[in-house]
Amino acid sequence: MKANKWLYLHVIQGNYGQGGFEDVCEETRYIDALVNLRLYCESEPQYPHRLIQRRERNPEHREA
Fold first, then answer.
1. For the whole prediction, is pTM greater than 0.70?
2. What H or E segment, with its residue span, contains residue 30?
3. Where are the beta strands (DSSP E) in the chain?
4. Degrees (nearest 5) of the Cα angle 50, 53, 54?
C-alpha cells in the first residue's frame, strides 16, 4: 500500500507567557487530542490551551 504524502496532526499548544503559544503535544487521532486537551486544561487552568491542525510531509512517502 502506498504511503500518503502528508501526515495530518492535531497539535495541543499552551501559552505559558514566553511570547506566544508553543507546542505541548501532538496526536494523529482527533479524539486522542481532545482527551489530552481536556487533561491539560484541568491540570493547568492558569494557562490557556488550544487545539490546532497541522500537516507535515510523511518521511515514509516515496515519489513514483
1. yes
2. helix 30-43
3. 6-15, 21-27, 49-57
4. 125
Q: Using the 8-state DSSP alphabet, how is residue 4 labeled?
A: P
Per the document, the length of the chain is 64
Q: Which stretches of the chain drop beneath a pLDDT of 70?
A: 1, 64
**Residues in CB range of 64: below 8 A, 6 or more apart:** none
- Torsion-angle region of 20 (φ positive above 0: left; ψ -120 to 50: alpha; else: beta): left
As to burial, measured by CB atoms within 10 angstroms (0-12 exposed, 13-18 middle, 19+ buried), residue 37 is buried
Q: Is the dihedral of CA 34, 26, 24, 53 positive or negative?
A: negative
Query: How far is CA 37 from each of CA 3, 6, 15, 46, 47, rounded to the nearest angstrom?
Result: 28, 23, 13, 14, 12
